[in-house]
Amino acid sequence: MSWLIAFFDWLVEFFGDPARWSGPDGIPARLLEHLEFSALALALAVLIAVPLGLLIGHTGRGEVVVVVSANLARALPTLGLLVMFVLLLGAASVWPVIIPLVLLAVPPILVNTFEGIKGVDPELRDAAYGMGLRGGQVLGRVLVPVALPLILLGCRLSAIQVVATTTVAAYTGLGGLGRFIIDGFATKDYARVVGGSVLIVLFALVVQILFALAQRVTVSPGVSRRLKVR
Amino acid sequence: MITFDAVTKRYPDGTVAVDGLSLEAPTGEITVFVGPSGCGKTTSLRMINRMIDATEGQILLDGVPVQGIDPPTLRRGIGYVIQQAGLFPHRRIVDNVATVPYLLGWDRRKARARAMELLERVGLDSALARRYPFQLSGGQQQRVGVARALAADPPVLLMDEPFSAVDPVVRTSLQDELLRLQAELNKTIVFVTHDIDEAIKLGDRVAVLRVGGRLAQLADPKTLLSDPADDFVREFLGRDRGIRRLQFVSTAGLRLRTDLTVEEGFGGGTAEPWALVVSADGAPVGWVADARPDVLEPFGTFVHGRDSMRSALDAALLSPSGCAVGVDENGKVVGVATREALDEALAEAADG
Ligand SMILES: Nc1ncnc2c1ncn2[C@@H]1O[C@H](COP(=O)(O)OP(=O)(O)O)[C@@H](O)[C@H]1O
Ligand SMILES: [Mg+2]
């Protein structure tokens, strides 16, 4: 059990130190950096992947884009990409980090949005057109609300990946919670390593919870079947 | 009126689903398309609201070719009911019904009020209005589908096997409901089914299609049963065509005897082998055989003048007496149709 005690000692040492809570290397500052990188990357990925997925799913044209993106996502090493972009663009701006994060975040959103729209019951789509809805109305008023759980799932998967991968941004000299881990290892300050990891895990949990809440608020109970049959 | 003028549909793969179809679906009547699976019923129906476009020929709505009308605009003026109802799962029932009114830009309150009125019309409790589709049974969903199609009061209603996915009891009640609604609303309805009994029950006119999308016969149900155009139609109508035809023969001319009824407490002693015991308020109680006046035997009734000869015959077969009990709308006995009377009526039916 001694490792558990050591673990808690490190946690107390890390979180209990008042100096940790202020300054450019403090917890709030690092947390904010992490949030900024992740949120920016995710927002860009959503802006690219959701409209593209909706369009391809609705028209059935360009499915190859989805397939290629799904395969690339599996094949591309994120760390490699990161280093490559830093070498190409220099480490002066956030873009060498943001671009690989976006590339990483696009495929899950794209694939799930596409599958969500394409997977809507053809009878339902048919009924919508039969009522006299136009193409855009069918998409916006019927397909998107029905496919929303899958679209959100894609966003959540990407968000988790982005949050985890943003840690790696620290390698390039940028900030974020990853700094605690890298700097901790460099100086053999294990309290910092442990504290940083715990922060990242908590961060990811909060993201999960936020998405679960968003799902509850935005998905119709008729789709999630949350209500009991009375 | 809907007019098919030499309409042909050839799918891109070469399948000819409908071949030179010409017919009219008159205003205010139910025209049924019936035929075996794959004969082109759905294709024919969907060409009316341009869910599918005809390859050759044209379809006219009150003389106007549908090809010239923008499809969404056309469809908002035509009610459409499909087999699985196709309700929007994310919307409450009331908003599902109000779909077309919303599209037409009605204000929300008016559209919802109209939806509530229609739910009642199709026999649904207003408490269901706030539910979501998954909280309804198949039969209820189908009723909502009908209400939704009627919401903007379109003159034309297209129905593609709307009742074939529900159980027989529910199906019968949905069919009755449709006939009742149609008596009030007088829509021009085109109804697709593969079930000849449904076609005969609902249709003012029945179009029998054969595979390859050719019209085999177009006639009212009675003519169809008595004069099938060819072997295909005869076979499709099935074996008990003669019995089913009795459904269209009225019992108004059926001779009733009023001297076969007795009061409760009857102890036997008429000259007839059977007597019908009638309660003080005029309701039938049971048959008694003269030989065993203390045993009540089962009876069958038909509403004289309203029910068909098929019902009368059925009523007669339900009782060991072999006689059918004629009642009025309130269930009071008006007389008894004996075997002799039924015989006469059947002979007449067979002649004409
Ligand atoms: N989209 C399509 N492409 C090719 N063939 C089709 C298509 N839709 C229907 N068909 C064919 O057209 C014929 C008529 O189909 P349909 O109108 O659905 O018949 P029904 O409704 O009477 O069962 C069938 O042979 C069917 O296989
Ligand atoms: Mg069909």
SSE blueprint:
The complex is a heterodimer of chains A (230) and B (352).
Chain A: H1 2-16, H2 27-59, H3 63-75, H4 78-89, H5 95-118, H6 122-131, H7 135-166, H8 178-186, H9 190-218, H10 221-224
Chain B: E1 2-10, E2 16-25, E3 30-34, H1 41-48, E4 56-61, E5 64-65, H2 71-76, E6 78-81, H3 93-97, H4 99-103, H5 108-121, H6 138-150, E7 156-160, H7 168-185, E8 188-193, H8 196-202, E9 205-210, E10 214-219, H9 221-226, H10 231-237, H11 241-245, E11 261-263, E12 274-278, E13 284-289, E14 292-297, E15 301-303, H12 309-317, E16 324-327, E17 333-337, H13 339-351
Parallel strand pairs in B: 3-8, 3-9, 6-7, 7-8, 11-12, 15-16
Antiparallel strand pairs in B: 1-2, 1-4, 4-5, 9-10, 12-13, 13-14, 16-17
The complex binds adenosine-5'-diphosphate (ADP) and magnesium ion (MG).
How large, in whole angstroms, is the Cα Rg of chain B? Answer: 25 Å
**What distance lies between the first and last C-alpha atoms of chain A, to the nearest angstrom?**
52 Å
Number of discrete helical segments of chain B: 13
Query: Could you name the CATH topology of the largest domain in chain B?
Result: Rossmann fold
Strand content of chain B: 25-35%
The average pLDDT of chain A is 91
What does this molecule look like?
The complex is a heterodimer of chains A (230) and B (352). The mean pLDDT of chain A is 91. Chain A starts with a helix and ends in a 6-residue tail after the last helix. Chain A has one domain (2-229): MetI-like fold (Orthogonal Bundle). The relative contact order of chain A is 0.14. Chain A is built from 10 helices and no strands. With 230 residues, chain A is mainly alpha-helical. Chain A is 79% helix and 0% strand. In chain B, the strands form 4 sheets. In chain B, strands 6-7-8-3-9-10 form a 6-stranded mixed sheet, sandwiched between helices. In chain B, strands 2-1-4-5 form a 4-stranded antiparallel sheet, covered by helices on one side. Chain B folds into 2 domains: 2-248, Rossmann fold; 261-351, Roll (CBS-domain), CATH 3.10.580. In chain B, helix 5 packs across helix 6 and helix 12 (309-317) packs antiparallel against helix 13 (339-351). Chain B has helices spanning 41-48, 71-76, 93-97, 99-103, 108-121, 138-150, 168-185, 196-202, 221-226, 231-237, 241-245, 309-317, 339-351; strands spanning 2-10, 16-25, 30-34, 56-61, 64-65, 78-81, 156-160, 188-193, 205-210, 214-219, 261-263, 274-278, 284-289, 292-297, 301-303, 324-327, 333-337. Chain B has 13 helices and 17 strands. The interface between A and B is medium-sized, with 24 and 30 residues. Bound molecules: adenosine-5'-diphosphate (ADP) and magnesium ion. The site of adenosine-5'-diphosphate has 11 residues of chain B, from helix 1. Chain B: Belongs to the ABC transporter superfamily. Chain B: One of its GO terms (molecular function) is ATP binding. Chain B: Pfam families: ABC_tran.
